[in-house]
């Protein structure tokens, strides 16, 4: 998953000039076809969110979660479609966007709604990148800790593994950003797909053992629904990277085709795993589906693939973060001590936040319900409405690049009713759902799912801190059923969904 990152371009394109008429569209001499683009979008979307998505379905008592999953896939496809149309407007009206554009999403916001919004979008994407880096660092450390426990029977807190992963990744971040990272995005798609296949095989094998002892949630806990919403938003929200992918297409106006195919693939990857996990494990599922797979080889195979995906994502996501920091501190573009200092500081900051909030699930939901909601649901709707109305006004006035931004009233009056209604519903849902889900995630981090910071644990008594969790969550109503027969490896019973 590469959502929120500034992705490198595939290469330099020879530009074919197009007319300025509203019906004419820009295309490049070379670039990505729409089918290949759809695979890049899948690689951008699929990733760490899938390990928590089955628990989100359990949190919502299945049918509501399944409906939320469908609605989110449709909404995200529609907003991706609007981003594609918005970018074609930018390339037609402002020729400079046909060449290399380092920050296409903020530029889109600036042309649509002004420089203030441009800076807001830029900050939003930076926060998203930082949040994803923290989430994936925690998930990588947790998976590595589980791997060591499963095969070597050595219990090591992932708090220490966070430090080790951070130290190992630091030298890689000193390198200048590679020109071509598309192989990493494709590899991310492949690793996630293989991991999902292994999880499904494991769930099928576990069904005969776990399903007869299964238990489901009886209570309706409102907080669970908003926590699930944050997870679903994280799993489908990769839109911050879409303008960069758009820029590298041969025919950017075909991005709608890519979006429909990509989100259909992602939906078909996610949904069977969620349904099968629900029917097999019920509410014994916790924040990661991986720990519920009873076959150690399959579990750790999927674990390895997801960890590989996370490490790849971390190596990519740190580059734009570091470049932003270097711009702030005016660091030279060549390798120097200032670069080492700034990039070390960035890694230390990410590690510190990960050590301070070592709770993967709620933190993932917090990122999904806050900045990812803005970049994936709200911004695309607003930008498209403003750009299309601005395009109409420019055409009427005979200006190709007017300085004025359409007013809110003009957008309401001039936008087609159906488009305005759909966008309004998405924006209202994004605002209300995002705000409540963000509040719920923060409350969950601070109360129910509170985990003491790693740097405080050594000073707590053994009775005052939580025990190290193992690699296996056993199934059944009391979480004490396993195909392995030996329940000594099972994690202690946990009321994960606040049912008691």
UniProtKB/TrEMBL annotation:
Residues 32-389 form the Amino acid transporter transmembrane domain. It holds the Pfam family Aa_trans. The keyword Coiled coil does not apply. InterPro entries: AA_transpt_TM. Coiled coil: none annotated. The keyword Transmembrane helix applies. One of its GO terms (cellular component) is membrane. Keywords: Membrane, Transmembrane, Transmembrane helix, Transport. The chain crosses the membrane at residues 32-57, 63-90, 120-139, 151-174, 181-205, 225-246, 258-281, 301-319, 340-357, 363-387, 420-442. Its main location: membrane. It is found in: Membrane. This is Aa_trans domain-containing protein. It comes from Onchocerca volvulus.
């Amino acid at each position: 998953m590469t959502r929120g990152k500034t992705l490198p371009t595939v290469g330099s394109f020879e530009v074919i000039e197009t007319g300025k008429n509203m019906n004419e569209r820009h295309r490049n001499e070379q670039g990505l076809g729409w089918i290949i683009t759809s695979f890049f979008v899948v690689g951008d979307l699929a990733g760490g969110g899938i390990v928590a998505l089955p628990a989100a379905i359990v949190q919502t008592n299945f049918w509501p979660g399944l409906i939320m999953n469908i609605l989110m896939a449709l909404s995200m496809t529609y907003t991706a479609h609007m981003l594609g149309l918005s970018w074609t407007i930018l390339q037609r009206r402002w020729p400079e966007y046909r060449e290399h554009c380092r920050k296409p999403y903020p530029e889109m916001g600036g042309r649509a709604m002004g420089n203030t919004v441009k800076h807001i979008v830029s900050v939003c994407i930076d926060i998203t990148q930082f949040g994803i880096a923290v989430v994936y660092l925690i998930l990588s450390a947790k998976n590595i800790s589980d791997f060591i426990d499963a095969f070597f029977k050595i219990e090591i807190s992932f708090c220490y593994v966070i430090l080790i992963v951070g130290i190992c990744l630091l030298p890689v971040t000193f390198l200048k950003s590679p020109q071509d990272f598309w192989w990493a995005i494709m590899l991310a798609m492949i690793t996630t797909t293989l991991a999902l296949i292994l999880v499904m095989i494991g769930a099928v094998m576990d069904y005969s053992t776990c399903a007869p002892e299964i238990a489901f949630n009886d209570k309706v806990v409102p907080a669970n629904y908003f926590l699930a919403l944050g997870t679903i938003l994280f799993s489908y929200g990769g839109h911050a990277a879409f303008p960069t992918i758009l820029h590298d297409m041969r025919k950017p106006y075909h991005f709608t085709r890519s979006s429909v195919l990509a989100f259909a693939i992602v939906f078909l990857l996610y949904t069977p795993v969620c349904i099968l996990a629900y029917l097999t494990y019920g509410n014994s599922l916790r924040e990661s589906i991986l720990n519920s797979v009873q076959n150690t080889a399959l579990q750790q195979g999927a674990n390895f693939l997801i960890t590989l995906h996370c490490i790849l994502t971390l190596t990519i996501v740190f580059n734009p973060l570091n470049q932003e920091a270097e711009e702030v501190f005016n660091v030279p573009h060549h390798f120097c001590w200032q670069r080492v200092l700034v990039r070390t500081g960035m890694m230390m900051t990410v590690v510190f936040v990960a050590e301070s909030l070592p709770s993967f699930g709620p933190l993932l939901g917090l990122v999904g319900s806050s900045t990812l909601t803005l970049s994936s649901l709200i911004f695309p709707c607003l930008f498209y409405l403003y750009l299309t109305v601005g395009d109409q006004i420019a055409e009427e006035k005979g200006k190709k690049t007017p300085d004025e931004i359409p007013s809110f009233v003009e957008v309401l009056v001039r936008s087609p009713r159906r488009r305005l209604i759909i966008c309004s519903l998405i924006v209202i849902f994004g605002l209300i759902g995002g705000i409540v889900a963000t509040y719920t995630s923060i409350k969950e981090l601070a109360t129910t799912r509170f985990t003491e910071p790693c740097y405080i644990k050594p000073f707590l008594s053994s009775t005052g801190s939580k025990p190290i969790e193992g690699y296996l969550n056993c199934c059944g109503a009391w979480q004490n059923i396993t195909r392995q027969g030996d329940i000594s490896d099972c994690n202690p019973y946990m009321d994960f969904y606040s049912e008691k």
